[in-house]
Amino acid sequence: MKGIIFVIDGMGDRPVKELGDKTPLENARTPAMDKMVEEGITGIMDTIRPGVRPGSDTAHLTLLGYDPYEVYTGRGPFEAAGINVEVKPGDIAFRCNFSTADENLIITDRRAGRIQSGTDKLAEVINNEVKLDDVEVIFKESDGHRGVLVLRGNGLSDKITDADPKHEGNKPKTVKPLDDSEEAKFTADIVNKFVEQSYELLKDHPVNIERIENGENPANIILPRGVGAVPHVTPFEELYGLKGVCVAETGLIKGIAKIAGMDTIDIPGATGGIDTDIDSVHKYIVDTIKSNKYDFILVNVDGADEAGHDGDIFGKRDFIEKVDNIMADLKDMDDIVLFVTADHSTPVSVKDHSGDPVPVFIKAPGLRVDDVKEYGERAAAKGGLCRIRGTDVLYIIRDLMNVTQKFGA
Amino acid sequence: MKGIIFVIDGMGDRPVKELGDKTPLENARTPAMDKMVEEGITGIMDTIRPGVRPGSDTAHLTLLGYDPYEVYTGRGPFEAAGINVEVKPGDIAFRCNFSTADENLIITDRRAGRIQSGTDKLAEVINNEVKLDDVEVIFKESDGHRGVLVLRGNGLSDKITDADPKHEGNKPKTVKPLDDSEEAKFTADIVNKFVEQSYELLKDHPVNIERIENGENPANIILPRGVGAVPHVTPFEELYGLKGVCVAETGLIKGIAKIAGMDTIDIPGATGGIDTDIDSVHKYIVDTIKSNKYDFILVNVDGADEAGHDGDIFGKRDFIEKVDNIMADLKDMDDIVLFVTADHSTPVSVKDHSGDPVPVFIKAPGLRVDDVKEYGERAAAKGGLCRIRGTDVLYIIRDLMNVTQKFGA
Description:
The first copy, chain A, is an alpha/beta fold.
């Protein structure tokens, strides 16, 4: 018996006039999921608590049974782990942009002309040449203009502000301590030095000279944000006795799984958008389940969230239909406890995460099948699970997998 | 106004093919409970939390308003209290079996031929002759081959393993400390000595000589298990200002009530099984309610749980129908707040407790009557209570009894 949490990222929504006052999920044609709903049990779920807007990171941590208020201080550690940086508890990690600054350090392009190549060479210089007292610097490029920075050493703190000014036309923000500790002051100072040194090291780098010659914005400064301390996390397998794996499109979700000690599977062609190679996503999910190497599989597909952020009503609906196609295989598997959910709602009207609960269903043997027959936010609210929380999910799955012990006698 | 929690132990279940995909409760003819559901309010309940499989002990502690994660370390203390051993906070208590060992101390019968008489005489020897340093030994026989052991003294711990090997053909397990404390080492040593001495004291006891002559297995060794420390518990009446009583079939449930400082009522003819004297159970429940001596009554009938453990589909269904007969009198009482529930599900397909929520209903004056008309797991999930927790029950009952104060102004 395998347990699966299948997260359709950001799927939850609100009624949309253009869809006849249906949500994208309600309006989508989803025969596979409807069939599983008909034969399963449904409900709504507050991933963290009612009205709280979860991030994808805090939502997934919660679904894996960790307390996000305890282990989550920022996105950096999970982004870093997601691109295979070997982070350690206590490391301070950041997401970064390669950006373009002019000679006065005014940021003229936060994404450095959406640079697609050469950042590995820039990263090499950063790793070799940045000098920050006794603090070890680990920098790695990610997709496009993105990268991660990890600071390792004694006396560091994550209680500091961001360097990224968020809007062009400004200098990098001076990083400031958020509390009175020496550690916060020291770390803020270190990050400010890092930003300055990045400009000095990158501005005349051959990669950038060539970009300027080609009329492209140079990637001549690095702007850290999303600071967080890498948490002490009890590995998933130690907590539950289940060998776990994560099949996901984005580094953030894979990073969460990595920090939880789970294996991760990369999906060639996955973009995390509605343009993702859905056939490849499909193949890697099904292959992982069928490999029989794992007791527990966390799946995440990201396009519905992206469409929600973009306010793309029909794109979101159509992507949900693509995901339903993936589900056809799972519908016919007998030896799984499948929990299908979103991590949060990303209403196309809000263009960001909201605190609306998400619709969930379970496919498993032995359920108290309810009389809900289609998958939708409002249909699910009438289901036999009523209203649950994200912290309940792994308890419910493990109970249905029959791998839990009685508490008491 | 009297408050009553009526627990039909282990009643919750899952759909069963042999019952036309109904649960035993859904399939049972329950006119009295259906009538109260029609005139009352229904819901589902997670006694501890969703997906957690409660023991009957931890479930009842929760229903009485105690935190099982705080007060529950094992079943022993409640079994001891249930047969009127006067336990004190700090005592270390065990359930025990009288068993049969051969001359090499191999256990050949864990239940000593299901001995029915003479264990009181064996217990007398144990109480008088066992010598365990400065530790006081209190041993008492219970039904059949069962007994309880209480250790009282300084420097004791419940962080030790069991002596019972669980399967015949093995020697008693050497009891081991579960942590590094001196207390755990000392207590493990004490229990190992107790087991050895029990064999020396009982092997040639006249009761056993006679059993051997009659071709019966002798009860010549005592195997403790289910160790727990007797908790400090604020008495029920002090917590709630309600004089409470428990009418139950089994020692475990009465023991929980006793440790909570409640009175208990013994029911002649009660077996805790589906063969119980249901008329006697009925009489003692109704007499206790009508005595007007108590503000709060905890009722437990145990047969549905036993049938669940046995996988006895029709036995479970038929027993629920018997319980419904008991309910006819309660249906017509006006001055009660009656909360009917199971403590946990014991699906006949699982043959053990599961984490499935249990169906509940309340009969009381002034309720927001919902439109559910029959008592069943899936019908209840559509009720006006939605999904509640075991910790909510006494709050709801006391509110409906109108004995609680506003919090604030």
